[in-house]
Amino acid sequence: MTTADIGGDIVVWDLEKRQLIGKISHVHHAAVTELYFMPGEPVMVSASADNSLRTWVLDGADGMPRQLVILEGHAEGVTAVQFNGKQELVHKRFTKDASLSKATATAIALSPCGNFAFIGYSTGHVDQFNIQSGRHVKTFAKQADQEGEQSEKENSEKAHDSKITALVVDSRGSELITGCYSGKLKYWQARTGKLLATMRTRLRIERSAPCTANSLLAVACIGDEGASVAVVDTLCRRVVRTFSSVGGSVNAMTFSSDGRWLLTADNSKYIRVWELSTSQLIDVMLFDRPCIGMSFNNSGEYLATIHEDEKSIFIWANKKMYASHVNIRALPLDYLPTWKSHVPEVGVNTFVIDDESEEWASSEQIDSSLVTYSGLAPSRWANLPDLALIKERNKPEQPPRKPKQAPFFLTAAPTLEGFEFEVPQEDQDERRRTLQAKRSLLELESSFSSMLRAATSSEDLQEVFQSLKKMSVSAIDFQLRTLPAVLLTKFFKMLTEILKTRRDFDLVQAYLATALKIHRSALWQEEDDAREAEQLTNALEELSLEQERIWSEYDKVMVENAAVTQWVKNALI
């Protein structure tokens, strides 16, 4: 049953359980005047004094309605009326010249500032418009003077002789890159419209995809020998990578968020993943239908794809962001995933991809003098010091409350004078069990603390660390929070032993930062036992010296690598 009030709220009740399911506030801006269910369907229509009709469907697992259609007019009296006119981003040439009447827009790009739109047409014209006003700013023609002013004759000239298939604005918004079907790639100064440079190829350019992480531009070309993809460095204006085994025709392209991978989709239902640093094919995916569009999210965790004749958008998770280890290896250029038909016991036909890659084996430390990372995903340790803050931030503003029962839902008991409502009594047994569980939790010692207490040698401490390493982030946080103060000395000795082996350097830093954050009060207060205080001080001093010794070597190498990398990025070779 659904009810509504004068505040525009809709409330849903469960008559069988005699309780409130939920409430949707401010559905309408005025009082709800009518609620109507379609006969035999879970569809409801709500009407309100705000001059609106809303259609709802109750198909969710929680029983709450989901809004489908809104039909609304003015909620209050109309105060003004005006015809706004026909706003289109179109140049006057297409309405005056009969030969251009069938022209279509084939490429579009937005400036990084979001104020300008660049449109390329099948006739070879390229125009710039102001998005806010819709005003035409300029036309990019083959010949333009230094000030960007063009004569009437030059205004009719085209940027290219064939249709525009590539249109990209660089990250600074200073240069516009256009490509045409005849195989020319031109660089224009966006402010003046001046032609800066031209690159030519014997192939036909079909489409392009820019990389937001750097200055690379992927250009899909097709010729007599088939399709290929060229990666162009727009700063140096030269081709830096070429991939020829991309299928018969390239339907879509995209770069990964960090610019390390290039993904290409062909008309044979395959998506290929190319590693730009090595120019190697590292993955091939086969789908039921050809992919016609795809994009990575900003953090690189998900890939969205759309497919031919499909109404849905498919979201794929990047295994490299979640799995501890992913075996990435170079594949043959003609590699195609093999499929094996498999009939399970339930009798449903399925297909299983035969992954020929071997199980990843943890590589041993190359040299005992080198700092080695654990190889675990950052999600297993990076947020550990701030886990409590993250949980506090994600906590709901108000705790879930038991819905108040309406008066006609309250249980009643007959009496001599009529009836009276029964007053619910507290469940004393439930409260007693809760208190006992909390008391038992305080009295028990965690498994990690027990292992740490029993450890007597360096090998034992390393074994305890390995057990902690296998736990989840929440479990590690719990173990560190329940660690008794008397075991802090052994805990710091354990981290020192791991530092001496120079393994799991990232985990040691995360565990150390978390422990210091949790037990900082215990470390600063004076100990009653002078012997325990001296042992804890010695353990901290030993850990500090080992940490400083390793970090000084590590930091020196990192600074050198950062300097060389910055020089390579800034140098124009």
TrEMBL record:
Q: Does the keyword Repeat apply?
A: no
Species assigned in the record: Necator americanus (Human hookworm)
Q: Tell me the Gene3D superfamilies matching this sequence.
A: YVTN repeat-like/Quinoprotein amine dehydrogenase (2.130.10.10)
Q: Which residue range or ranges hold the WDR36/Utp21 C-terminal domain? A: 364-569
Q: Kindly give the InterPro entries that the UniProt entry links to this protein.
A: WD40/YVTN_repeat-like_dom_sf, WD40_repeat_dom_sf, WD40_rpt, WDR36/Utp21_C
The answer to whether keyword Translocase applies is: no
Q: Which domain of life is it from?
A: Eukaryota
Stored Pfam families:
Beta-prop_WDR36-Utp21_2nd, Utp21, WD40
PROSITE patterns assigned: WD_REPEATS_2, WD_REPEATS_REGION
Protein name listed in UniProt: Utp21 specific WD40 associated domain protein
Which biological processes are named by the entry's GO terms?
A: rRNA processing
Q: Where are the WD repeats?
A: 25-56, 157-198, 243-284
Query: What does the UniProt keyword field contain?
Result: WD repeat
Query: Which Gene Ontology terms of cellular component type are present?
Result: Pwp2p-containing subcomplex of 90S preribosome; small-subunit processome
